[in-house]
Fold:
Amino acid sequence: MSSFQRPSSDTRIYIFIVVVSLFCVLTPLSRATAPTLSLSVVNNSQKEIRHLFLSSAASDNWGDDLLSASIAAGGSSSVNADWGESTVKVVAEDEDGCFLTTTLNTAGTPSWTITNDTPRNCGF
Structure:
């Protein structure tokens, strides 16, 4: 004869509740996202900024355009993006199609002020 006994109905319910509870707690943790980066861009140049992109500091693979509207000359804008790295390359495109870039530390609330002296890459 075997000394094995089937678990009681109460034990099975308890085990079921524990398994479901663990699933409910661990599932949201598996979907953790990168922290949000809040970036302020101040446009002190005479050119309108029409697009703003982010990439890893050592990469030229940009993400999507973060601007919902252009930044007028003399204006500013704040953008938010999911970003998990300690630095970020910020790429702006002005009204002439020229690109301006900078690399920023993402600690705190980084800010980039674009001036008439900010180097522009116009492709020529």
Notes: The first helix runs from residue 9 to 30. The domain at 36-114 is CATH 2.60.40.2890 (Immunoglobulin-like). The chain has a mean pLDDT of 87.
